[in-house]
Amino acid sequence: MKKPPEPWYAHEFPDRPLVEGAWLCCCLLCAVSLERCGVEDSHRSIIFHTDVGSFACHAGYAAFHRTEEQLHDMVHYRSELGSWITGVSVGHRRGRAKYAPDHEAPYPRPLDDWPVCIHCGPASHVRFSDGELERGRVS
């Protein structure tokens, strides 16, 4: 049986590709990591954990919506699965298709071009060593 990967936040290693076991928050470094994953590995699953259940979407879809809104707003697309996002994790790869970002805009997008999350702010200092999982709050 394969050992599950150790969890880590994307803002801790912003240059590392998103792989299964990574977690995302609403900070700008996580937004850049999600955009890179959406371009380079757009069929990777992004799993949204809510107060009721969880739902998954492709990284390309999540990256597209993150350019205009925060991750917390993604729950509006699947309202039957809860009203609040408690965490966002990266799932396994389902394929390697790519979507093309706007060719007239720079890639990766500058941090000033991202919407800042009204819940979390522009930067995150959360780590798994802070005990966030034990308290039941991951995002």
List keywords for this structure.
139 residues, alpha+beta, five-stranded mixed sheet, 5 strands, globular, disordered C terminus
Commentary on this structure:
With 139 residues, the chain is of the alpha+beta class. It has one domain. It contains two helices and five strands, in the order ββαββαβ. β3 and β4 form a beta hairpin. The longest helix is centred in the first third of the chain and has 13 residues.
Report low-confidence residues grouped into runs of 5 or more. 132-139
Distance between the termini: 29 Å
- By secondary-structure content and strand pairing, the structural class works out as alpha+beta
Fraction of helical residues: 10-25%
Counting H and I runs of at least 4 residues, what is the number of helices? 2
Strand percentage lies at 15-25%
* Integer average pLDDT: 78
Silhouette: globular
What is the chain-wise order of helices and strands?
A: EEHEEHE
> What summary fits the major beta sheet?
5 strands, mixed
Strand order, largest beta sheet: 1-2-5-3-4
Number of domains: 1
Number of DSSP strand runs = 5
Indicate the radius of gyration in whole angstroms.
Answer: 14 Å
